[in-house]
Design brief:
With 320 residues, the protein is of the alpha+beta class. It is 36% helix and 23% strand. The chain has twelve helices and 13 strands. The longest helix is centred in the last third of the chain and has 18 residues, at 267-284.
């Protein structure tokens, strides 16, 4: 069994999610809405790695399907197709992360991001890798911190160093749509947007499949958390620390947009404010961000990403 097969095998909900005709129909609709080159890439990966395409699609959309599943319990008018798919993916653990953007007084800009996800056998941790997408005639280059078989983006930076983005989980009371999957949209942003301004517009205005938080950090020192429901958005900006630095902290709850009754992500939501406050208190005390991030983990931290936009570098570290 190869690594991708093992990763899919560990996600026991995937076979259940692809077992019914209604769920397969919903996945077919979602698949057709993916950008053609990403869909082709995933089908080629499925063929080469000897896995079923719909199972690979579910693995790629673990975040989105988990949020859809939670929304299905909250929205009475959810379509039968999305419900049939979503309620089977309840075991999919949403990405529970803490992301921090820092703009220093000397002009340097950094982004830190804990990726916390259920990873019982350490497959994701052991197979974390940076993938560099080279610029072609019609798409931009970028770097993504990812895993085997994953075509979307959870954390990445533009090749030209203009900006970096990370995804955090949130569940806003809204009816899920057959819109863009946030992880796939983020890849499209990196492929098409050369500037911070372009990325902000696309992440804010594109109709989505489900709610999400985008943390966008620019090399120019501009930073914003984009709080998204399927159709709406709100922007949250950084605050100034006593030493003059600007800090932007994103956990797993909205602070500007009204979440309605859709904020319940269980323990994830319960620790969101605590992690946010711990990071802010630590930064105000002048603690180094690496120490703060190590203390801000939720459950199993697969890796902590570090993006230095001043030197245009992406790296990561992992606890032993």
């Amino acid at each position: 069994m190869n690594t991708l097969q093992q990763i899919i095998h560990e996600q026991t909900w995937i076979k259940q999610a692809t077992s019914s005709l209604a769920a397969r129909t919903a996945l077919g609709i979602i698949s057709r809405q993916l950008p053609k080159h990403i869909r082709h890439e995933m089908k080629q990966t499925a063929k080469e790695e000897d896995v079923k395409y719909l199972e690979l699609l579910c693995c790629n959309l673990s975040y989105e399907l988990a949020i859809v599943a939670l929304s299905c319990n909250k929205v009475p008018k959810i379509s039968s197709l999305m419900w049939s798919l979503g309620h089977k993916s309840m075991e999919a653990a949403p990405v529970g992360c803490t992301t921090v953007g820092i703009a220093h007084t000397n002009g340097s800009v950094e982004m830190y991001r804990n990726l916390d996800w259920d990873d019982p056998n350490g497959l994701l941790k052991d197979n974390t890798q940076e993938v560099i997408f080279s610029k072609s005639s019609d798409r931009g280059g970028f770097s993504s911190l990812t895993f085997p078989g994953f075509s979307g983006v959870l954390t990445g930076k533009a090749k030209n160093g203009a900006y970096a983005v990370a995804i955090n989980a949130v569940c806003i009371e809204t009816e899920p749509q057959f819109g863009a999957a946030p992880t796939m949209l983020l890849r499209e942003v990196f492929e098409t947007c050369r500037t911070y301004k372009q990325a902000k517009k696309m992440l804010s205005e594109t109709v989505l499949m489900c709610s999400v938080l985008f943390t966008l950090v620019g090399a120019n020192g501009k930073m914003v958390t984009i709080e998204r429901s399927a159709n709406n958005y709100a922007h949250r900006h950084p605050v100034e620390l006593p030493d003059g630095r600007q800090i932007l902290i994103t956990a797993n709850s909205c602070m500007v947009m009204d979440e309605g009754d859709g904020s319940s992500l269980g323990e994830l939501s319960e620790t969101s404010d605590e992690r946010f406050n711990d990071v802010l208190k630590g930064a105000k005390k002048g603690l180094d961000i690496e120490t703060i991030m190590d203390k801000a983990e939720f459950g199993c931290t697969i890796h902590t990403a570090y993006v230095d936009l001043t030197s245009n570098n992406l790296s990561w570290w992992q606890k032993a």
